[in-house]
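Weekly puzzle thread! Below is a chain. First person to post its structure in token form gets bragging rights.
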Amino acid sequence: MKSFEKIVQKLIKNKKTIATMESCTGGSLASAITNVEGASAVFKFGAVTYSNDFKIKMGVNKKTIDEYSVYSINTAREMAFSISRYAIADIGVGVTGKMGVSDPNNNFGDDSRVFVCIYYDDEYYDLILKVNKGTRMEKKDYIIDKIIEFLDGNLKL
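Winning reply:
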């Protein structure tokens, strides 16, 4: 897995903050950020919301989950927006999806598709990833690497 060090340094330099709401990555994104010295200056809050109920409690609209499914870019967008507002952070990141395992409670969608949204400066930046190779940990690392690459290459921090 790549290091968040460069992103954390950019955030510190530009006085920007970040918060995460994760489902399938189970807090790996928050962990990757907080593994960097100085991350406390920029990391506001991380939530792991495995269940639909807690996504809703954290601000995701139940109608969005009902209409598009919990495994959708629409849900990832609401996760990113909601966590940025909840934590009063400049950047919110939402991650939801399935990493090769079906979900009997939410039996729809591709079992190897992960949806990531980064909410920053009133804009939504979407990533839809195919995650079908490797161990669960390798899949999480792949997702984190893609988020790091996106943040580094696409956002003007």
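Puzzle host: Confirmed. Bonus trivia for everyone else. The mean pLDDT is 91.
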